[in-house]
Specification:
By secondary structure, the chain is of the alpha/beta class. It has two domains: 135 residues, FAD/NAD(P)-binding domain (3-Layer(bba) Sandwich); 201 residues, FAD/NAD(P)-binding domain, CATH 3.50.50.100. It is 33% helix and 23% strand. The strands form seven sheets. A five-stranded parallel β-sheet has the order 5-2-1-9-19, covered by helices on one side. A four-stranded parallel β-sheet has the order 13-12-11-17. Strands 6-7-8 form a three-stranded antiparallel β-sheet, with no helix packed on it. A hairpin with a 3-residue loop joins strand 14 and strand 15. The chain is globular. The mean pLDDT is 96. The structure holds flavin-adenine dinucleotide.
Length: 403
């Protein structure tokens, strides 16, 4: 059989899980090229931790490290811009062209600011490495320059990321304030949500318990609040100005602009996700998976990993010329969302559990997720060192050395 060429685009949960699975597949039958616009894999579930004092490596892992035991995957750093499905060619920003027999598009989503004035300019985000650096540097720089806390720290969006981050900030700000010799008794953390409850994707019970927990941590939860404007000095919410220079936007995402640019080649659901068939394909050669695809639980890392697992099996069947190709059956995901130390809210279907056991479940889920991408040994190393802290701020470093 002539060797086929598979191109995977995207080094996220879906792309890297598929790369891991393909380690087992005979190289002479399939040449694999992985293309991504970054040289790292972002374990997004730990980004809030990397934003609040934990080691960055927990959330941002070099692709070279992940593929070190998977050398037959050829990694190319490029941004893809076009696809010609008829000719089976993918083109990149730098003018490179790649012919494929099969392609898997897993490009993830991008931030959307819903056109709110000033938010794109003045708010912080924690999705990418540079955003993470920028945010952490701001927290410390402000303490150095002003010798005080900010008047308020505002997290926008009470979805999982907003909840995790607001809760983690309650202790992190106090820790770094101490290192900067600043009193933190007036610390004010606002969690601002446009909908009527926190964790709108979870059920009522999970949402209520999380609200109670956040209040216990002294996070001011502001529900039914619409963000209208941000300037360098304040955030305007429902007509009221909140003095601040720290706003973290976790509220909105939209599908990757690649699909809009190539819209003639895809069909979309009303939310802009790509419509796929029951093999997660848009034709007999192109899979679209993870956050890009219109599947029941799209938008979760778990779903992206599950999609990739299915694609591996389906590809194997196709390459074998198998007539039997079962369709994709979506996995009903369980969620475990942490809010502060040793507390999480776990939900599977209608079952809800909160507290330290849910937190342990979350920690084990992290180990499983790392293993899916990195293999067990590397995953275990990251997991076991996950309580280690890291600071770039000179004041905090000096204080580390003294203690
Ligand atoms: C802060 C945060 C926390 C989260 N926490 C959780 C959680 O705890 N549990 C959970 O299940 N889910 C979580 N999610 C959701 C989860 O991250 C996504 O569902 C998951 O990343 C989707 O995987 P993916 O492979 O589709 O896309 P991604 O993981 O986003 O990967 C997309 C990849 O494509 C690359 N790319 C993009 N455009 C191009 C281009 N044009 N050319 C080449 N490469 C390109 C990107 O750089 C990236 O490597 C979280 C998301 C965020 C933002």
């Amino acid at each position: 059989m002539k060797q086929k060429h598979l191109i995977i685009v995207g080094s996220g949960w879906a792309g890297m899980k598929l790369a891991r699975e393909l380690k087992k597949y005979p190289q002479e039958k399939l040449k694999v090229t992985l293309i991504s616009d970054i040289t790292t894999f972002r374990y997004s579930a730990a980004l809030y931790r990397a934003a609040t004092g934990h080691k960055e490596h927990e959330a941002i892992i070099p692709i070279s490290e992940i593929l070190s035991d998977n050398p037959h995957i050829n990694f190319i750093k490029e941004t893809i811009t076009h696809i010609d499905r008829e000719k089976k060619v993918i083109s990149t920003k730098d003018g490179m062209k790649f012919h494929y027999d099969y392609a898997v598009l897993a490009l993830g989503v991008v931030t959307s600011y819903f056109g709110i004035p000033g938010i794109d300019q003045y708010s912080y985000n924690i999705k990418t490495t540079s955003e993470l650096h920028h945010f952490r540097a701001h927290l410390h720089r402000e303490m150095i320059d002003e010798n005080s806390l900010d008047k308020s720290y505002n997290v926008i969006g009470a979805g999982p990321t907003g909840v995790e981050l607001a809760a983690a900030l309650t202790s992190y700000i106090k820790i770094i304030a101490k290192k900067h010799k600043i009193k933190s008794s007036k610390l004010r953390i606002n969690l601002i949500e446009a909908q009527k409850r926190v964790l709108p994707i979870s059920n009522e019970k999970a949402s209520q318990k999380t609200l109670k927990r956040l209040r216990k941590l002294k996070v001011k939860v502001m529900l039914n609040q619409k963000v209208e404007l941000q300037t360098p000095d304040f955030l305007q919410v429902n007509g009221v100005q909140i003095p601040t220079s720290t706003v973290i936007w976790t509220a909105g995402v939209t599908n990757n602009p690649f699909f809009k640019k190539n819209e003639a080649q895809f069909s979309f659901n009303p939310k802009g996700k790509v419509v796929v068939d029951n093999h997660l394909m848009v034709d007999d050669a192109v899979y679209v998976i993870g956050d890009n695809a219109d599947t029941p639980y799209s938008g979760l890392g778990l779903t992206a990993v599950d999609n990739a697992g299915y694609v591996y099996k389906d590809l194997k069947r196709q390459l074998k010329g198998s007539r039997r190709r079962p369709g994709y059956k979506p996995l009903v995901p369980a969620t475990a969302i942490p809010a502060g130390k040793k507390w999480a809210v776990f939900q599977y279907k209608k079952f809800v559990l909160t507290g330290p056991i849910a937190s342990l479940i979350r920690s084990i889920a992290d180990l499983v997720a790392y293993s899916d991408i990195l293999g067990y040994k590397k995953a275990l190393h990251i997991w076991l060192t996950s309580e280690e802290k890291e600071e770039k701020c000179q004041v905090c470093k000096a204080s580390f050395n003294q203690s």
